[in-house]
Design goal:
6 helices; DUF4270 family protein; signal; DUF4270; mainly beta
Length: about 500
């Protein structure tokens, strides 16, 4: 791992208690570390491993509104318990995708053949062999822009339109593709990650479907207000008793997924036609497009697990959870880290920090049910695990540990993010080449120096700990384009961390 080092980034630090160095230190050649230190004095380089106190923290709510996906299902595991997910979505009339001239009202003698609710999924948490059983319910009111929606929000629904529908999750399509020796072809299995729910086959859904089609037939100006007067939206939830999997339904970008399609015939010849209305989780197609409201309800029952006593007010130390701590996005689990032994790094003018990094090992092969998060982030928090904030212009933004790598600006120049700034949160990631995954790491050289010297912005308190989380909560002040898409990500990815071996590794040099 390469850490750019310059004279401007070096600072004197302390070393009290040489015995601490003997506990966990190693000597390396300065050239091997790639140090760029000023002057010609002989320099030795060593590193010191300091432990961190770790505990599992649960956030009271998870932000799920207008995320990159919605979740539906119920899954149980022995470590965290039972997680239930239900998705509430508005329905949209989109003339740009289903033009008005394709409405049934534009044709002679339209007759409805069927109506199919189509959902596309891209991830299964749990068993893909076991079908998902789900219910479809109508919302009593459309989701609106004035209401705050999150994982704990309840919405009013009517009687189920479809109950206990069995959705097969492991179906494959067989397609013929050209072989290397043309004109021969070979059969290739292509995963079919689509759920199709025939609405007219449900006696509960048929009256609503027929009334919507009747409005499409009688009103050549059928629009969003007309639809909202008949069908306010949908809630997709796991059926009672279903346990085994949760699916992720991503934000759609094409017209063929996450739709309710009406299939009808027209004229004496019975020509087949279609008209579709769309679920609100469709990606904007243009700057003028405004998508609808949607969010995921999430609950997790921790009973019977090592985390049973965990509440937002009651974090659990790793000693209470078999030496493990957890980070999991949709469940709201994060790991609190507290520095220990920093007195070994103060008030020694002959010692210079060259680099510092957090090494966060994972429990080996613990990603069978939930994949590891691709990135984690470090929030500064107080004793009550409340995330601290700072001003960015007129906005209040979360205090996150900032990245150490130089950032290229559009004009080609480079800047080094400030350790007490905003906009460039450090990504705690798995170094390349690990197979299987062993640990996450992140450089915090500048941040550690600011922490040791209490060099925060005016009016800001030193944090009592750092919260390691897989989620970026909002986009305020976020300036890295590659991270903007991680805001409002929603998944159940999880890492079990080997808390007893989380280390702060500090490489330092001693000027002789």
């Amino acid at each position: 791992m390469n850490w750019p080092t310059s004279a401007g980034r070096l600072s004197s630090v302390t070393l009290l208690g040489i015995t601490l160095l003997a506990l966990a230190s190693s000597c390396e050649k300065a050239n091997d570390l790639g140090l760029e230190l000023p002057g010609t004095s002989p320099i030795s380089a060593t590193y010191l491993d300091l432990p961190l106190r770790a505990s599992t923290v649960r956030q009271p709510v998870v932000q799920t509104v207008k995320a990159n996906s919605v979740l539906v299902g119920r899954v149980r595991d022995s470590f965290v318990g039972t997680t239930t997910a239900a998705a509430a979505l508005n329905l949209l009339v989109l003339p740009g995708l289903s033009p008005l001239d394709s409405l049934p009202a534009k044709f002679v003698n339209p007759r409805l053949d069927s109506a199919v609710f189509v959902l596309a999924f891209d991830q299964v948490y749990g068993s893909a062999v076991q079908p998902l059983r789900l219910d479809v319910l109508p919302l009593q009111q459309p989701l609106d822009a004035r209401t705050v929606y999150n994982s704990t929000t309840a919405v009013a629904t009517g009687a189920a339109l479809v109950s206990n529908f069995t959705a097969v999750l492991n179906r494959d399509n067989t397609v013929r593709v050209p072989a290397s020796n043309a004109p021969d072809t070979i059969s290739v299995a292509s995963p079919q990650r689509t759920i199709r729910i025939p609405l007219l086959k449900s006696s509960s859904a048929a009256p609503l479907v027929n009334s919507v089609f009747a409005a499409m037939t009688s009103n050549s100006a059928f629009n969003q207000n007309t639809l909202d007067g008949l069908w306010k939206g949908v809630l997709l939830r796991p059926s009672e008793g279903h346990v085994g999997n949760v699916i992720s339904i991503p934000r759609a970008s094409t017209r063929t997924v996450n739709v309710v399609t009406f299939y009808f015939r027209t004229g004496a010849e019975g020509k087949k036609r279609t008209y579709s209305i769309y679920l609100a989780n469709i990606a904007p197609l243009s700057g003028s497009f405004t998508d609808g409201r949607y969010f995921t309800q999430l609950t997790t029952d921790l009973a019977g697990t090592p985390l049973a006593g965990l509440t937002p007010q009651n974090p659990l130390p790793s000693s209470a959870t078999n030496g493990l701590t957890y980070v999991q996005e949709g469940v709201g689990l994060s790991t609190r880290l507290e520095f220990e032994g920093l007195e070994a790094l103060r008030d020694k003018p002959t010692l210079v920090i060259n680099r510092a990094e957090l090494l966060i090992p994972v429990r080996q092969l613990s990603n069978g049910l939930f994949p590891y998060p691709s990135s984690l982030y470090l929030y500064e928090v107080n004793e009550a695990n409340q995330i601290l904030t700072r001003l960015n212009g007129a906005s209040t933004v979360d205090r996150l540990v900032q990245q150490e790598e130089p950032v290229a600006l559009p004009n080609g120049s480079l800047i080094l993010p400030s350790s007490t700034g905003v906009g460039y949160p450090a990504s705690v990631s798995v170094p390349l080449g690990q197979n299987p995954t062993q640990f996450y790491s992140v450089g915090i050289t500048q941040y550690l120096q600011a922490f040791l010297q209490n060099r925060f912005n005016a009016g800001e308190d030193r944090p009592s700990g750092l919260l390691l989380s897989p989620a970026l909560r909002n986009g305020e002040g976020l300036l890295l384009p590659q991270q903007s898409g991680t805001v409002a990500n929603l998944n159940l990815n999880r890492a079990q961390l080997d808390a007893n071996n989380i280390r702060l590794r500090v490489y330092y040099s001693k000027l002789q």
